[in-house]
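Technical annex B. To support the medicinal chemistry partners, we prepared a structural model of the target in complex with alpha-D-galactopyranose, based solely on the information shown next.
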Amino acid sequence: MNKQVTSLYKAYEKYFPVGAAVNPLSVGKHNNLLLHHFNSLTADNSMKFSHLQPVEDTYLFDASDMIVAFAKKHDMKVRGHTFIWYKQTPDWVFINKNKKPVTRKILLERIQKHIHTVMTHFKDDLYCWDVVNEAIADDQGYLRPCKWLDIIGEDYVAKSFEIAHAENPGSLLFYNDFDIIFPEKRNKVIRLIKDLKKRDIPVHGLGIQAHWNIYEPGIEEIKTALGMYANLGLQLQITELDVSYYKAGDTNKLETPPPELIERQAEYYDSIFSLFRQYKDVITGVTFWGVADDMTWLKFYPVPLRNNWPFLFDADHKPKDAFYKVIDFYLQNQ
Ligand code: GLA
């Protein structure tokens, strides 16, 4: 299949690697699409703290090893995702035997031990890591309230980067977050990155998650944010791209998308990839949060069992209008 279809990653070879988030099930199910269209992978869940070390000192690498082996076999890059996050981290990390919060010192030691074990395990099979995920507060305030912040204090972010850098100085280290195109979070991200850089903390990249929808963020807003982020002096990656058919807060359910929305999604993809190409000097990767419309977290969140079709490939793994828009620039130049 697909052999006659232009390869997405080959179309973008002069720009940036094109990635997909996967799990052992989707690697099997989307095998052909992955091999033909993608040259980078991210584990959607299996490298998170709760998956790798659900119980203290018990590490589970089976799922992530399978993904890394697949990537190596097919010469794909792998992004590490993620060490320090307020979600998907087991409770044991934050408490002692008496179920009381651990001290700052112990929590930092636990971070160090986890990062040491995981980075030693993967060595250089992963070229980068999302060291800290989603540390910025969604509404008022600077950093998101969470146990890392409660126990360690604001420098949990800086400390995590220092630890990761000491464990593997060759790894590119990213700060990764969502909704950071919108001015409120954007300005806090800029503050965070500038602060880290001023203190010589080893942060090399900013991950823009990009769980977007066909209405927002607007193309101008994305352009403005990319321009500002490009000036920070680090590399940028789009790390978790999907384009939903529903605006944030919309609880309606579509059975199938109406033609005008299919068209709108194709236009949206066209515009964002054209922007990404413009920023190719700073953008070092664009990763979709999945592969094709038959498997997406958006069918469960935020409205359970609601259809959604966020990718370039449909549920039958056929390229959509959006796909053809995204590779059109390449075909025009052939
Ligand atoms: C966030 C996380 C991802 C994933 C998505 C939802 O963006 O960074 O790891 O959990 O939410 O699937």
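Notes passed to the chemistry partners:
Residues 133, 178, 209, 240, 297 surround alpha-D-galactopyranose (CB under 6 Å).
The chain is about 40% helix and 15% strand.
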